[in-house]
Write a sequence for this structure.
């Protein structure tokens, strides 16, 4: 099992912790990680965009002028795409962008993402994040002590003070252990996790 150093909020070492290899020491599958990120971004899309084709815009029921003899190019409708107010060629229509992955693939992708952070020494475990009052300055001080930039902060459960303290810091995001996902892990430089959150993740994914 991999051993990681446990820090306190001042950035001092206070011990070590063994990580479960079933979650944090798997063989990294980059393909599944890529699929998981694509899936998450695709599934966020609303797919509600719509524009009208020439059959849907109003007007244009008759030929604007006769076929020959006017000096104009021939036209069949004033609602063709080249006319102002005309329809859109290949207009976008509402669609579902959903990308599917089975449960085993999603779990394997998350384990791969977490393992990559551990191997890159970008997985920082803290004994606790006990912030008495919701202040951005306090959270910034903690992250500076931990040398964590562009951080994903993972707590065992939603902690209101942690969320409020971190939400105004650029490139910092908070998430509860049960909401951790591949995109958030991979899009942040450092993952800062409490000991309780590590236990929660291992309990679900080991």
């Amino acid at each position: 099992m991999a051993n990681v150093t446990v820090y306190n909020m001042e950035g001092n070492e206070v011990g070590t912790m063994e990580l479960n290899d079933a979650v944090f020491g798997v063989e990294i599958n980059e393909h599944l990680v890529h699929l998981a990120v694509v899936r998450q971004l695709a599934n966020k899309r609303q797919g509600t965009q719509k524009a009208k084709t020439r059959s849907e815009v109003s007007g244009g029921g008759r030929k604007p002028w006769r076929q020959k003899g006017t000096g104009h190019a021939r036209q069949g409708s004033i609602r063709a795409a080249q006319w102002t107010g005309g329809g859109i060629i290949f207009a976008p229509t509402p669609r579902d962008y959903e990308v599917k992955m089975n449960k085993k693939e999603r779990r394997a992708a998350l384990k791969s993402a977490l393992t990559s952070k551990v191997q890159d020494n970008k997985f920082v475990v803290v004994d606790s994040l006990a912030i008495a009052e919701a202040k951005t300055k306090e959270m910034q001080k903690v992250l500076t002590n931990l040398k964590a930039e562009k951080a994903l902060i993972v707590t065992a459960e939603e902690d209101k003070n942690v969320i409020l303290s971190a939400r105004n810091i650029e490139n910092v995001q908070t998430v509860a252990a049960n909401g951790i996902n591949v995109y958030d892990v991979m899009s942040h430089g450092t993952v800062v996790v409490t000991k309780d959150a590590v236990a929660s993740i291992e309990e679900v994914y080991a």
